[in-house]
Amino acid sequence: MISMTGYGYAERSDEHVHALVEIKSVNNRYLDVNVTLPGLLSPLEPTVRERVNASVARGRIDVFVRLRELQEDVAVYVDRSTLGGYLKAIDELKDAAGIDEPVALGDLLALEGVIKSERSQDRDRYWTIVEPLLDQALAAFVASREREGERLAADVDAQLARVEAARGVVDEHAAEIDAQVRTNLAERFAEVVGDQIEESRMLAEVAVQLTRFSIHEEIVRLRSHLDTFRDTMSTNGPVGKKLDFLCQEMHREVNTIGSKSIVLAISEQVVEAKDALENVREQLRNVE
Q1: What is the rounded distance in angstroms from the CA atom of residue 175 to the CA atom of residue 181?
Q2: In which order are the strands placed within the sheet that holds 31-36?
Q3: Residues 10, 136 share a domain
Q4: pTM above 0.90?
């Protein structure tokens, strides 16, 4: 069993960049992957999503990738076209004003757009940093889901033991239903017809009532569902939906036993089994 709740984290720093990958998940009916990337890496979202999809089958997964530049690689250059335009305009201004004064470097630096800068952002270089971090975070994430799944499996197994114990007690007392039916019918016939009881009619009515109140089939099906549930728990891969269905089937059999029971000991075990199955269903909400 694998839990749908998990967490994975990895980070790395060098002299140029600090990178972080964080993955967390909660339960969900289907697989829902949400990826948050820096703008530079946004074209790589399908790649990240594909990596995550290959590792999980169900749950709401949030993936966060963060980058922070520690030492920016900035290219500074002179925009010669803009500078040429400014110089031409300055020469025209000097001629129009009759001023013959040299242009200082400080004047040129103050002109907007003459000096430009560009940050060097190499997507491939960033991906070589993020990719191994994504793999590390995914490995930690999957491992955490497996550990949580083991804890869930232990708790579910303990609840199944309660159901199995209750089923055993019900099986032991099942014969009391037959005896109680016979006794009740005999008393009713005696009240209505006294000593003039037709044995054949009595036996026919007993047969009808035994068929109505018999819980043998429910006990057999409940045992079968318990065995199938345990076998499914031990298989690899996503089993949450199948286990939930089996839990519903067990709950149905226990309810039927309760509706037929006329023996106090059986009714008490029905309450015990239903409580245990509700606990199982609560845990299965987190199983992949």
Answers
A1: 10
A2: 6-13, 17-26, 59-69, 31-36
A3: yes
A4: no
